[in-house]
Amino acid sequence: MVALLVLLLVGCGPPRSSRVVIGAKNFTEQVVLGEMLAQEIEAVTGERVERRFYLAGSYLCQQALVGGRIDGYVEYTGTALTAILKEPLPPAEDRGGVLGRVRDDYERRFGVKVEAPLGFEDTFAMAVRGEDARRFGWTKISDLVGRPELRLGVGYEFESRPDGLAGLEKAYGLRFAGRPRTMELGLLYRALAQKQVDIVSGNSTDGPIRALGFKVLEDDKGYFPPYEAVPLFREDSLKAHPGIQVAMDRLAGKATAEEMQGMNDAVDAQHRDVGDVVREWRRGKGL
């Protein structure tokens, strides 16, 4: 199915648009970030940006980018390193070099510029119910060792990714009750709240974590690499549309994890229009 979608998107699509085209994966934060890039480019250039959101996961976005169907999208450095570049997880003491490695390899292999980080990380987050964390004194992932009765819920990518479940279980010596329940990210927190599972692998900037009072456990062994949010743009697109770089420079370092949580929650839980949410955030930043 994924291969067919890639062929349709990259091989059989319409000619490349003369407008700047921004892509995004198929979850709320990615749509927020795609809208953020699009609005800022429109503000700088005065020209309409085409939006191609909900492009499934990292693989499809990457194929769309290198195939010229989109000019840019936001990726996370840890995902770029492990899922796209297929490089092994670096040792914990070398995690600070991930951005540089990703930047060099994307330029060399794909002709893609990795822009300055937007200011926040969206790392995998092992979350439990707040009342359970208080009851059992859970503060870090190591606290779950020796609790094989716990039921785990995960997203589809986390179960198979090189920086996902198998490595986490090995790094911490974790065992869970049976096979993990696999579901869409949006359903994970509902399952946790309804006590269908006891722990989930979400994302650190997901709105429901704060809204539902869940506790994110500290990655005390430093298993997960950095997941800084970075815009990726084709180098030929930057040459053809110089305003893109101006817009990316304006966005660099502007977004915090707490602000992303708030925007994600506004779209997911409050059902607000993503364009309005991003415009409000940009006004608050003086953009």
Descriptive notes:
The longest helix is centred in the first third of the chain and has 18 residues, at 28-45. It is built from 14 helices and 10 strands. The chain folds into 2 domains: 2-6 and 19-121 and 226-284, Periplasmic binding protein-like II (D-Maltodextrin-Binding Protein, domain 2, 3-Layer(aba) Sandwich), CATH 3.40.190.10; 124-216, D-Maltodextrin-Binding Protein, domain 2 (3-Layer(aba) Sandwich). It is of the alpha/beta class and 287 residues long. The protein has helices spanning 2-11, 28-45, 58-66, 77-84, 98-110, 130-136, 156-160, 165-172, 185-193, 207-211, 235-240, 243-251, 257-268, 274-284; strands at 21-23, 50-52, 72-76, 112-114, 124-129, 152-154, 181-182, 199-203, 214-216, 229-234.
Identify the notable features of this structure and list them briefly.
single chain; 287 residues; alpha/beta; D-Maltodextrin-Binding Protein, domain 2; 2 domains; five-stranded mixed β-sheet; three-stranded antiparallel β-sheet; 14 helices; 45% helix
Distance N to C terminus: 40 Å
Q: Strand-residue fraction? A: 5-15%
How would you describe the oligomerization state of the chains in this entry?
single chain
Look at the structure and name the CATH superfamily of the largest domain.
Periplasmic binding protein-like II
CATH class of the largest domain: Alpha Beta
Please report the total strand number as a whole number.
10
Shape: globular
Radius of gyration: 19 Å
What is the H-and-E element order? HEHEHEHHEEHEHHEHEHEEHHHH
Strand order of the largest sheet: 7-6-8-5-9
| CATH-scheme architecture of the largest domain | 3-Layer(aba) Sandwich
Largest sheet: 5 strands, mixed
Low-confidence stretches: 4-15
Number of domains: 2
Annotated CATH topology of the largest domain:
D-Maltodextrin-Binding Protein, domain 2
Residues in helices, as a percent range: 40-55%
Put simply, the count of helices is 14
Structural class call reads alpha/beta
* Average of the residue pLDDT scores: 91
InterPro entries: ABC_Gly_betaine_transp_sub-bd (IPR007210)
Protein name: Osmoprotectant transport system substrate-binding protein
Pfam family, one: OpuAC
GO cellular component, one term: ATP-binding cassette (ABC) transporter complex
